[in-house]
Design brief:
Order of helices and strands: HHHHHHHHHHHH
Radius of gyration: 26 Å
Strand content: under 5%
Largest sheet: none
Shape: flat
Distance between the termini: 57 Å
Length: 281
């Protein structure tokens, strides 16, 4: 679903790019800005300020150099749209590949859009789809999950108890499969993940306040910090239990589906009977 959203956003950005200048300077600039932010949010698969800023900067860069070099404009748009995701690529070599892939893919997408953007409607649609596929190529470089990355970062700024719980939550996030949850449960779980991130942010602020305070100023956040630590641990435990129950239910459902087993057994019996008949004849 996330990759499909990126393809739609990229197709819209590159498909409507050639028409931005025809609808007026202000309107066209706003449209490009919105498309750039939309592309960046789809590339990051999360609503993040850094991603939105990267998309806006990419749209601005593309507008500035678009007439002189469509390739440079496309490269700037795609590379900056992936800026937030690039920060979540852990290995240094992989990060360079991610940036380089975004630059090359964006340059090719910009060139194709400029070359065929004034053709017939069918050609423009094909060009936009090709540009969208090119813009999605950096997704082949693995990046950390946004929530897991945020929890790991917050764990470094919290105390020992909260930090351990947040790191456990990050590890859980990386290994779970949300497709096992039904729609209602998925909504509740997503809300719980957001609440856990907010608790981690609040706990980090409390830790900084304790580190910078003295006397009563340092003691006051301490009592609140202990309560926040308990809430963080409870959230992680609840999330772990939700995914465990979903895995159990899915395994139980799969074990009850014996149709494939019955078909295989029946096929085996038929083959065995056929073999015996051939041998005895």
């Amino acid at each position: 679903m996330r990759k499909f959203a990126l393809l739609v956003a990229a197709a819209a950005a590159f498909g409507l790019w050639p028409f931005a200048g025809r609808i007026g300077l202000v309107t066209g600039s706003i449209a490009l800005l919105g498309l750039g932010v939309l592309l960046a949010l789809a590339a990051s698969a999360t609503i993040d300020g850094l991603a939105a800023a990267g998309g806006a900067l990419g749209a601005l860069s593309a507008a500035l150099v678009g007439n002189a070099s469509p390739a440079a404009a496309g490269a700037a748009l795609v590379a900056l749209a992936y800026a937030e995701r690039t920060t979540r690529v852990k290995a240094g070599t992989a990060r360079l590949v991610h940036v380089g892939g975004a630059l090359v893919a964006g340059a090719l997408a910009g060139t194709i859009t400029a070359a065929y953007g004034s053709g017939s409607p069918a050609i423009r649609v094909v060009a936009a789809l090709v540009a969208a596929v090119l813009a999605a190529l950096p997704l082949f470089v693995e990046a950390d999950d946004p929530v897991a990355y945020a929890l790991d970062g917050l764990a470094e700024d919290c105390g020992e108890e909260a930090g351990a719980a947040l790191r456990e939550g990050a590890a859980l996030r990386r290994h779970v499969d949300e497709r096992l949850l039904d729609a209602a449960a998925a909504r509740e779980v997503r809300a719980s993940w957001k609440a856990l991130v907010r608790l981690g942010e609040a706990r980090a602020r409390l830790e900084r306040a304790r580190a910078g305070g003295k006397g009563a100023i340092a003691d006051a956040p301490g009592a609140v910090a202990r309560r926040v630590d308990q809430r963080i641990g409870a959230h992680v435990a609840a999330l772990r239990r939700a995914y465990l129950l979903a895995d159990t239910a899915h395994a139980a459902e799969a074990s009850e589906d014996v149709r494939a087993l019955e078909v295989v057994q029946a096929t085996g019996e038929k083959l065995e009977a056929t073999s015996e008949a051939l041998i005895s004849s």
